[in-house]
Amino acid sequence: MRVFADPRSVAVVGASADRAKWGYWLARGAIKGAHRREVHLVGRQGAVVEGVRCLSSLHDLPSAPDLVALCVPPGAVPGVVDQALGMGARGFVGITAGLDLALGEGAERALAQRIAAAGARLLGPNCLGLYDAATELHLAWGSFSPGSLAIVSQSGQLGLALGTLAADAGLGVSRFVSLGNQADVTAAEALADLAGHDRTRAVALYAEDFGDGRALVETFAALREAGKPVIVLTVGGGEASRAAARSHTGALTSAMEVVDAACEAGGAIRVTSPGRLVDLAQALAAPAPPRGRRVAVVSDGGGQGALAADLAESEGLRVPPFSAELAARLAALLPPAAATANPVDLAGAGERDMTSYARVVEVIAGSGEADAVLLTGYFGAWGGDNPALDRTEVSVAGRIAEVARGLAVHVDSMGRGTEALAALRECGVPVYDRVDGAAWALGRAAALPPAGRPGRPPRPLAPSPPARGYWAARELLAGYGVPFPPGRLAEEGVDGLRAPYVLKADWLEHKSEAGGVVVGLPDGAALGRARREMARRLGPGRYVVEEMDTRDHVVEIIVGGRRDPAFGPVVVAGFGGTEVELWRDTVTALAPVTTRAATEMLRGLRCHRLLTGWRGGPALAVGALAEVVVAVSRLLSERPDVAEVEVNPVRVGVEGVLAVDALVGYAGPSGLT
């Protein structure tokens, strides 16, 4: 991948003097790095771009190009690639789109294979290019401001938009990689290459599909360990993107919930908009992360401080009252009308003596009573309204930035474009123009998942012939440790089973909706009548009889999972029973999960309080329920032929759990069978 970061030489094929064409922008960007690498332009005979004359062919180059930018019509691409490979080129940036359309289906794949066979790499095709601030490599449309945010984007234009927002926030771009069609270089590879990129402090990923999702999760974790957390922006959260599966589990698990599970496993964070991404990137690229959730709010207006405190608490942060000692120290710095308990209101002190902002922040930082400071209000606007105050405000900004090297300080300012705000941003201090954005970003930064490697799925077992129906699902799950009530096939009788009984039509997937289950049968005679009546309605088939679970204080939970096309097996737990889709109280994780992880999943449910003793009720067997989650996750991980599993409901009681219905779907050549 080094060829895409710091090539020894670059050739732009398709260079143009026409400013409306891609070839001009690629050539212009490449020329900016001509002082540190050879730059060659290949284009129309005699054309001159920014003072550099174009050559008519790669063969006219004095030496082999290391990296070649392809900006020629689709029909010319294979010939250019063959020429460059013959000369020893090691990398290609494929700007050209529509290869399959112009040259026939499979042309793009064949081109990538030809490049790989020669030991070279291809970025794209159909990409917008790349940029690296550290090596002054610029082979992309548009302009970039150097900074600390790396952007890896499947959409070139959206990636550019993120770069613009990052520049507006004073964050700037450390590296930009437009992935295009990912015929060779993948998102995971482009991200992994950032682990040793010194200028990068945070990473933005925009993806529409995730390819090998598990490899991507491992890359998230590696970057998190390297101190470069990943922020993910994607699409597909609407109803149209929900999994088309037969089970409740599939209907309950959206594409976004799976992406969120993947992000949590890898220590990344998903956001919902470009603006949110840049807000959070500022927080994650700051010199010091929040140490915890305690936030000191400092303002020069009571209303702004109170609003900031409310917003901070709504984002899961705490705004605890200061100790009497700290409040007294602050009071000694401020007018009598100032509020010093947290939030702090300077009550006009900043207007009389601008150093009050810095002194208050310094005292709070030295107290150890806050994990972060949110400064909101007029600071940063004084110099804009009165240029005579510029120098003083910049000096105060420098003192605040010094504090921010050891304690997270986030600034929400009414100012725009002032020298003081520029000074803060130059030192990496996050500056926001909306207090809700500041509070949101601070909350997400404080909740950043810890670094750690996600668990690898176990070695898959050899697939077994699919066994259909409830009885087969029950036997498969019982083999993984999921407990079921005593039962047998109905034709075997009820000897050894205790009444009351439950009768089930084995082949039906959702028995309650289809009238395929009868409960509370008091004896064998009632069971026989129910079986005859059910056969009359539903037709011949296999029936199952089980002991009915009659325990008191029972909560019904759903445990299931499915095989995601990108991220593989995922496990789901939630409030179960026949109303599962009404309440939609579920949590999702990548499978397999440990007992500890399964327990944490259950704690994330709104219904968790029902399991731990709601309104004086007894605590239920949460540990046994967690083991069912573990078992289902193992089944999905070990059996690649299993496409989905649903155990619903799992009846959780005081002394244990019982699964009383189950569905297993298998992957056939054309989908579920």
From TrEMBL:
Domain Rhodanese: 279-391
Keywords annotated in UniProt: Ligase
InterPro entries xref list: ATP_grasp_subdomain_1 (IPR013815), CoA-bd (IPR003781), NAD(P)-bd_dom_sf (IPR036291), Rhodanese-like_dom (IPR001763), Succ_CoA_lig_flav_dom (IPR032875), Succinyl-CoA_synth-like (IPR016102)
GO MF entry, a single one: ligase activity
Top-level division of the source organism's lineage: Bacteria
Pfam families assigned: ATP-grasp_5, CoA_binding_2, Succ_CoA_lig
Protein name per UniProt: Acetate--CoA ligase family protein
